[in-house]
Amino acid sequence: MTELNGVYPILATTFREDGSIDLNSQLKLVDFLLEAGAHGLGLFGNASEGYTLMPDERTGLLRAIVKQVNGRVPLVVSTGHTGTDAAVRLSVEARDLGADALMVLPPYFLKAEGEGLLFYYDAISKASGIPIMVQDAPLLTQVAMPPALLARMGKEIEHVKYVKVEAPPTPTKISNVRNGGSSSLVLFGGMNGHFFLEELERGARGTMPGSDMTALFVTVWNAFEAGNTEHAWELFTRMLPLIRFEIQPGMGVSAMKHNLMAAGVIECARVRHPTATLDATSLRELELLRSRLPQPK
């Protein structure tokens, strides 16, 4: 597999009004994101409501998505768990069903530190044998992974190749990881891409935002890669009000789904509890922000 880089939207999971999986909308969304230029897809992450999915739903969705993508882009599947054995099992299953790489949160119920985290990621690496993206998300997990620990993971664990940096301030963390002996690790940003350009300027090689602004993120990426940073900043600055709105706790997933529904991509904006649903006032605010977005070129 070639090195991951670029814009890897976290694929929203689409539901019907009764809360069941809407597979038709799901596959339509997959094609929409690929047509928008996504370089790969992230599955079952936080913006996917992966935490609400049953094991059989994950398996069925992954099978269907792998078939729909048909090798066009890499698939990065979230397989972190509160237990090491469970994370290993999820990771092996994802590999067997067609995952190209794994995105793995650390255990966040009984929290491991240092050697415990090395053991956890090494067990997944040895069992799965495919690239691992360590998800460094302490706001969610309350697990700190300092640059020196990430560097050890990259050096000592065979398949740890990537880190998704979601430890604010993320640009500073990316610089610290880069300068801390982790030059072999490929760094991605997250948190809906709200510091996308700052992260790229400090050495990140991609981002994993939600599903609703993929074409714009790709346009910004293309401008940056072409050396046209002025145009990249102009576009990104106009995206920031909506990115800011969506990064609010309890707002993002519902907002992204309403944006996708307004674009005619999915049939329903239903989320699963405890994911929050936007109220009427928030929906009016969202519509205004959506109307102010630039057009991707």
Instruction: Count helical runs.
Output: 12
- Strand order of the biggest β-sheet: 2-3-4-5-6-7
User: Helicity range of the residues?
Assistant: 40-55%
Poorly predicted ranges (pLDDT <50, ≥5 residues)? none
CATH architecture: Alpha-Beta Barrel
Approximate strand percentage: 5-15%
- Computed over alpha carbons, the radius of gyration is 18 Å
Number of DSSP-assigned strands: 8
Might you state the CATH topology name?
TIM Barrel
CATH class: Alpha Beta
Q: Structural class of the helix and strand makeup? A: alpha/beta
H/E series: EHEHEHEHEHHEHEHEHHHH
Q: Which sheet architecture does the biggest sheet show?
A: 6 strands, parallel
In CATH, the homologous superfamily goes by the name: Aldolase class I
Q: Please tell me the total number of domains.
A: 1
Walk me through the structure.
The protein is built from twelve helices and eight strands. The protein is of the alpha/beta class. It has a single domain (6-214), classed as Alpha-Beta Barrel (TIM Barrel), CATH 3.20.20. A six-stranded parallel beta sheet has the order 2-3-4-5-6-7. Strand 3 (75-78), helix 3 and strand 4 form a beta-alpha-beta unit. Helix 1 (23-35) packs across helix 2. The relative contact order is 0.14.
Question: What's this entry about, in short?
Answer:
With about 300 residues, the chain is α/β, with parallel strands linked by helices.
Layout of SSEs?
Blueprint: E1 6-7, H1 23-35, E2 41-43, H2 55-69, E3 75-78, H3 84-97, E4 101-104, H4 115-128, E5 132-136, H5 138-141, H6 147-156, E6 160-165, H7 170-179, E7 186-189, H8 196-201, E8 206-207, H9 214-225, H10 229-246, H11 252-262, H12 280-291
Parallel strand pairs: 1-8, 2-3, 3-4, 4-5, 5-6, 6-7
